[in-house]
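PROTEIN DESIGN WORKSHEET
SECTION A - STRUCTURE
LENGTH: 350
TOKENS:
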């Protein structure tokens, strides 16, 4: 019932914005009493200000993950620069409850005026296939702003396995699968989905241990409590591989990662295998396109800043800076890909 009411309200707002957009164009092209009448009509409709006036108050950036995660880091890297460029505070708010679903639902119900946006990540596209009856539709209730970055995922093992290459690990796993566990950042995480796809592709059977976030999983991998992970290569994972505390076997992108140039891709051994982590910005559906465009253009400028680029590179992030349309297509294609895999492999949240 709530979803029906929300969609009806969204349709009403969309009609208002269509009328309001025409009124704004007339206001900008005419002077005198007509402009005043049209401006008053726009105000009565409760329409957002022109993009020229945006933002005129602080903007909230929701992060549906804990502090220290990739989406949180991305939000905190760009928010000061957005504040500097647009003259209003961009305030990061972590909304972690229920795997970020509650925060995402709150965004869907926020006013579509550009003053509440979200820095989301790859499970945004797969969650509809993992959870029943989500209170939002990822393709209808949100407006893509930009895919900011993508991150390679890396297959890493504990040094105690004494394997140095992907073929060595697969051979070891086929002989000792019952002794191994893989760690994941959670039952609906991209690290879980990526490893389940890898298991099927490589023909190995390894049981999962699901954690509440990537940090605890990585800590247990370093301790040897779990022996292998396929997880985003940023932050602690990359640092521990470079320090020799973990052994990197391969990355999961289509091409070799510039951050780990000596590592092969999984696809070099299993053609067609590809998984990628990404971070992107979204707004509620119905947010006026001029505001979406202004945010996108400002983010393009921010991401081209040498200081920002250097800090993202330290997180093993590849800057993408896509258009809204390109990001929307990524969300659609990722949803289709993981939906098919989840159904075929009967992946469930236990």
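SECTION B - SEQUENCE
RESIDUE ASSIGNMENT:
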């Amino acid at each position: 019932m709530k979803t029906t009411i929300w969609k009806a309200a969204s349709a009403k707002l969309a009609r208002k914005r269509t009328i309001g957009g025409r009124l704004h164009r007339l206001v900008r092209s005419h002077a005198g009493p007509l402009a005043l009448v049209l401006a008053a009509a726009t105000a009565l409709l409760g329409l957002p200000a022109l993009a020229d006036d945006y933002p005129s108050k602080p903007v909230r950036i929701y992060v549906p993950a804990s502090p220290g995660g990739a989406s949180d880091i991305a939000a905190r890297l760009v928010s000061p620069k957005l504040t500097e460029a647009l003259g209003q505070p961009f305030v990061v708010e972590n909304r972690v409850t229920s795997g970020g679903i509650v925060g995402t639902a709150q965004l869907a119900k926020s006013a579509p005026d550009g003053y509440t946006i979200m820095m989301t990540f790859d499970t945004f596209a797969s969650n509809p296939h993992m959870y029943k009856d989500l209170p939002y539709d990822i393709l209808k209730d949100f407006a893509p702003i930009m895919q900011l970055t993508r991150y390679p995922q890396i297959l890493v093992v504990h040094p105690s396995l004494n394997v140095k290459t992907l073929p060595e690990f697969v051979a070891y796993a086929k002989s000792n699968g019952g002794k191994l566990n893989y760690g994941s950042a959670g039952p609906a995480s991209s690290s879980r989905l990526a490893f389940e796809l890898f298991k099927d592709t490589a023909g190995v059977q390894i049981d999962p241990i699901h954690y509440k976030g990537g940090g605890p999983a990585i800590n247990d991998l370093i301790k040897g409590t779990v022996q292998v992970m396929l997880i985003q290569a940023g932050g602690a994972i990359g640092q521990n591989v470079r320090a020799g505390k973990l052994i990197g076997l391969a990355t999961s992108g289509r091409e070799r990662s510039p951050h780990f140039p000596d590592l092969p891709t999984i696809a070099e051994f299993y053609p067609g295998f590809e998984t990628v982590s990404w971070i992107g910005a979204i707004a509620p559906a119905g947010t006026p396109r001029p505001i979406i465009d202004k945010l996108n253009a400002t983010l393009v400028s921010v991401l081209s800043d040498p200081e920002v680029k250097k800090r993202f590179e330290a997180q093993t992030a590849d800057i993408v800076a896509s258009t809204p349309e390109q990001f929307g297509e990524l969300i659609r294609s990722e949803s289709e890909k993981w939906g098919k895999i989840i159904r075929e492999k009967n992946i469930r949240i236990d």
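SECTION C - NOTES
Confidence is low (pLDDT under 50) at residues 1-48.
Strands lie at 59-63, 90-94, 116-121, 142-157, 181-184, 207-210, 228-232, 247-251, 276-284, 318-319.
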